[in-house]
Amino acid sequence: MKTIEGGVTAAKGFEAAATAAEIKYKGRTDMALVYSQKPCMAAGTFTTNVVKAAPVKWDQEIVKNSPFAQAVVINSGIANACTGAEGYGYCKETASGAAVVLNLPETSVLVASTGVIGMQLPIDRIKAGSAKLAEIKKDTIEAGHEAARAIMTTDTVPKEIAVEFTLGGKTVTMGGMCKGSGMIHPNMCTMLGFITTDAAISKELLQEALSEDIKDTYNMVSVDGDTSTNDTVLLLANGMAENPKITEKGEDFETFKKALNTVNTYLCRKIAGDGEGATALFEVKIIGAKTKADAVTLSKSVVTSSLTKAAIYGHDANWGRILCAMGYSGVQFDPEVVDLYFESAAGKIKIMENGVSTGYSEEEATKILSEPEVTAIADVKMGNAAATAWGCDLTYDYVKINADYRS
């Protein structure tokens, strides 16, 4: 497997486009299209929030009941959440409008929205944007890149990746893009993610692969503890690589899952590192746990601790906050045997051994914690299970961004 240039247009047969529809923003692109030249098997995972945005409900229906999907229309600026029957009707109008200009069945068009909750979409602008997107779509890397930019809200950078691997002697490609910066918390996270592949695979195994993988990727990200109304990850497979179709579990399915995990892990790290106002990606690894469930709970407890996140922002090796967060997680462990390390590109330092300070150098610890990517590793010495969670530091700018988000 190797990483290649590109995103959602890297796989054979996929096209993309971006346009400025002025849905909420002016002077920037705010609508994107992902389109496959051939019908796709589609899989999806969605927010666990009881309050689900209209696009989530639409996509759940399409993924579950439609025989195939072929396009995704995405807008930023307005989330189309808490908009009632009118909002759901706009999903249908968006899909039907795109279906006409793309010459597709309405039931093959997925929709996604991100932005402010509670506002209705300007459907005339959405329809005009869809027509423009259909007109300018291309299969180029740049078209994919522009689509990744168009779906950003408070994101500061576009997030995309592509990988190449082999299935049944055929070269297969998988690419992805996502957006996410605030209102990010485990339970499918607050984000939109779109993954495309030219692999041939059954719908059932495609869904199984995605549902399995989110447990170790999207569900392990937290920026601020808020689970969104719009969380959506869509995975489209058009079969144009012409590999022997994956219809049962085996070596090819495992290879496919590995590629999917590579794409999703990369995108998750990008979301965490680009958290609203963040200056650092904060990674928490729990090792030596009794069970995987324990490791997951412990890592999430640390990565969501506001006090720990603030310490990371201040480059302060305040290890007591980490041990405290582990202690209130609900997992039973012996704090008097825990070892704790901090690691970054600047080095690795053991902060705590068997529950007490090692007498480490504060200067060295601060140097390690001053990097843009910082990892805390806690060994609880209870077993062989491990888990990794991703988050970011907590800064003054997070409050500034969210104090006037609607304006």
Automatic annotation (TrEMBL):
<dbReference type="GO" id="GO:0006592">
    <property type="term" value="P:ornithine biosynthetic process"/>
</dbReference>
<feature type="site" description="Involved in the stabilization of negative charge on the oxyanion by the formation of the oxyanion hole">
    <location>
        <position position="114"/>
    </location>
</feature>
<comment type="pathway">
    <text>Amino-acid biosynthesis; L-arginine biosynthesis; L-ornithine and N-acetyl-L-glutamate from L-glutamate and N(2)-acetyl-L-ornithine (cyclic): step 1/1.</text>
</comment>
<protein>
    <recommendedName>
        <fullName>Arginine biosynthesis bifunctional protein ArgJ</fullName>
        <ecNumber>2.3.1.35</ecNumber>
        <ecNumber>2.3.1.1</ecNumber>
    </recommendedName>
</protein>
<dbReference type="InterPro" id="IPR016117">
    <property type="entry name" value="ArgJ-like_dom_sf"/>
</dbReference>
<feature type="binding site">
    <location>
        <position position="153"/>
    </location>
    <ligand>
        <name>substrate</name>
    </ligand>
</feature>
<feature type="active site" description="Nucleophile">
    <location>
        <position position="190"/>
    </location>
</feature>
<dbReference type="GO" id="GO:0006526">
    <property type="term" value="P:L-arginine biosynthetic process"/>
</dbReference>
<dbReference type="InterPro" id="IPR042195">
    <property type="entry name" value="ArgJ_beta_C"/>
</dbReference>
<dbReference type="GO" id="GO:0004358">
    <property type="term" value="F:L-glutamate N-acetyltransferase activity, acting on acetyl-L-ornithine as donor"/>
</dbReference>
<keyword id="KW-0808">Transferase</keyword>
<comment type="function">
    <text>Catalyzes two activities which are involved in the cyclic version of arginine biosynthesis: the synthesis of N-acetylglutamate from glutamate and acetyl-CoA as the acetyl donor, and of ornithine by transacetylation between N(2)-acetylornithine and glutamate.</text>
</comment>
<feature type="binding site">
    <location>
        <position position="190"/>
    </location>
    <ligand>
        <name>substrate</name>
    </ligand>
</feature>
<dbReference type="GO" id="GO:0005737">
    <property type="term" value="C:cytoplasm"/>
</dbReference>
<keyword id="KW-0028">Amino-acid biosynthesis</keyword>
<feature type="binding site">
    <location>
        <position position="402"/>
    </location>
    <ligand>
        <name>substrate</name>
    </ligand>
</feature>
<feature type="binding site">
    <location>
        <position position="407"/>
    </location>
    <ligand>
        <name>substrate</name>
    </ligand>
</feature>
<feature type="binding site">
    <location>
        <position position="179"/>
    </location>
    <ligand>
        <name>substrate</name>
    </ligand>
</feature>
<keyword id="KW-0055">Arginine biosynthesis</keyword>
<comment type="pathway">
    <text>Amino-acid biosynthesis; L-arginine biosynthesis; N(2)-acetyl-L-ornithine from L-glutamate: step 1/4.</text>
</comment>
<dbReference type="InterPro" id="IPR002813">
    <property type="entry name" value="Arg_biosynth_ArgJ"/>
</dbReference>
<dbReference type="Pfam" id="PF01960">
    <property type="entry name" value="ArgJ"/>
</dbReference>
<feature type="site" description="Involved in the stabilization of negative charge on the oxyanion by the formation of the oxyanion hole">
    <location>
        <position position="115"/>
    </location>
</feature>
<dbReference type="GO" id="GO:0004042">
    <property type="term" value="F:L-glutamate N-acetyltransferase activity"/>
</dbReference>
<keyword id="KW-0012">Acyltransferase</keyword>
<keyword id="KW-0963">Cytoplasm</keyword>
<feature type="binding site">
    <location>
        <position position="276"/>
    </location>
    <ligand>
        <name>substrate</name>
    </ligand>
</feature>
<comment type="similarity">
    <text>Belongs to the ArgJ family.</text>
</comment>
<comment type="subunit">
    <text>Heterotetramer of two alpha and two beta chains.</text>
</comment>
<keyword id="KW-0068">Autocatalytic cleavage</keyword>
<keyword id="KW-0511">Multifunctional enzyme</keyword>
